[in-house]
Amino acid sequence: MxxxxxxxxxxxxxxxxxxxxxxxxxxxxxxxxxxxxxDLKWVIDTLAPGAISATSADxxxxxxxxxxxxxxxxxQDLDPAAFAGKVVLDATNYWKEVDGTxxxxxxxxxxxSEVIQDWLKDAKVAKAFNHMGYHDxxxxxxxxxxxxxxxxxxxxxxxxxxxxxxxxxxxxxDPFDLGPLRFGLVLEPGSPLFGEAIxxxxxxxxxxxxxxxxxxxxxxxxxxxxIK
Amino acid sequence: xxxxxxxxxxxTFGDLAFQDDGTPLNGDETLRQVIKEAKLADDLGxxxxxxxxxxxPEFAISSPEVVLGAMAAVTKSIKLGTAVTVLSSDDPVRxxxxxxxxxxxxxxxxxxxxxxxxxxxxxxxxxxxxEDYNGLFEEKIAMWQKLLEGKPMNWTGKYTQKLTDTxxxxxxxxxETISTSLAVGGSPESIIRAVAYDIPVVIAIIGGExxxxxxxxxxxxxxxxxFKKPEHPLGMHAHGIILDDExxxxxxxxxxxKAEMDRIGIDRGWAPMTRDRFEFEIDKGSYYVGTPEQVAxxxxxxxxxxxxxxxxxxxxTGGQLLSQREATIRNFGERVIPRVKELLGGE
Lengths: 228, 347
Fold this sequence. Notes:
Chain A is an alpha/beta fold and 228 residues long. Chain A is built from 9 helices and 8 strands. In chain A, α1 (13-24) runs parallel beside α6. In chain B, strands 1-2-3-5-8-9-10-12 form an 8-stranded parallel beta barrel, surrounded by 7 helices. Classes of the chains: A alpha/beta (228), B alpha/beta (347). At the A-B interface, α1, α2, α4 and α6 of A face α6 and α7 of B. Chain A: Keywords: Oxidoreductase. Chain A: It comes from Lacticaseibacillus hegangensis.
């Protein structure tokens, strides 16, 4: 298989880290941000040499897989028409320092990635790269070269599952399919799975016990039962 | 300015400590203990002590300048700093008044490190909105820099008070200023902004292999060239325990540093630290835990690799026994700092 072109939107902590991982694994990588290409280029040439700095519009147009690494609360800045037919990996999380004290995007009844999918209605959204801290994306992967860490994903589009798995594998992870997008709620901040960089068997055990946790119990309380 | 090429200091957040028999110290007792420790650090010739501002149950220091004022009275030459002052949720005018007061009390040994606040408790506590996290910091750091000019202030802001020809007291003696640095984490944007502000940077490197921060160091240098701003010496901050017995240091670290990280992790959504990760942080990562020679080697190695001129060791993380805290301070001052300087081949 040829390597898909990775397009990253957002050049902050997460975006620059993902770009560095991608280029270190020789994946063709583009990155765009709200800064001008000239302002972005010298930063990216330093933090993720090899990644191509571009306008966000260019990234959306040219990349095969677009990773969202922007502040979640800015999702409405994305132009739904430009994303039509695109494969999108939503790596965003609600983070109060960035998105504000009150989370009005996701709650225990639906995940923030479902909100993104509703906004980018003609795109194929998968939730991925959410449950690991940006620093651990590099640290925990590199220090366990023989035991890849589980990276969970969720999507409603079966036709993109092979591509999502290919990308997560290429980044050095063991793709862990949670099923439809609504199941991605268990990857969000506050969940016992959030912050975990562990192998598949341990991840699976934690997932199995999710409804014993306060987070899981909240899901049951607010949804009237586990996610189905 | 300084008589040495490198600066080595101690940081503490005023973690509630324990008597050697395990009895916990309360906040009052911990504050008085920290004063004693500053006196010890001063006697040992350590360059600085810097205090964090927190508003949480496990830390006694919420008002660092008051504590620094008490330290000023019992110490002679040690620099008295913060690490950090959460400027975003404070009033820059009041911050200036407190530090210019400290300037007088300490004969100019005060230092301030500004931060955006990696802990966010201070925002609701003082009536600020996290929604304004960036705007507050941007505006207040600009106001701080104007205050440092020492002239009557004319100022209009969105989050701050309007000032017209206002002098802030006590005034600093002519030609003197408040030594200011800026704390940053792993955000490229923060590093670039620090360059634009022309304020020296201290990077918190508290997890993972320190060499991973080399791109950020390079970014700082490149940004300085790009903006035609001076390249200030860089500093780093990290946690450590220095005991004569390596295994004891490791176990103290696992008991206290891990517990502290896990407590903070509950609020931040980090997973609890595994033993394996903890040992990795000692072997290859960001914990300076071990014997004086081990810690000195590690500090020297990382300062060289990252071109650092300043190293601040956080001692007493998670509380620890008084004797353990004292051992770390003594070992740092008596054995580690001289050895690191020797290894770095400088003054």
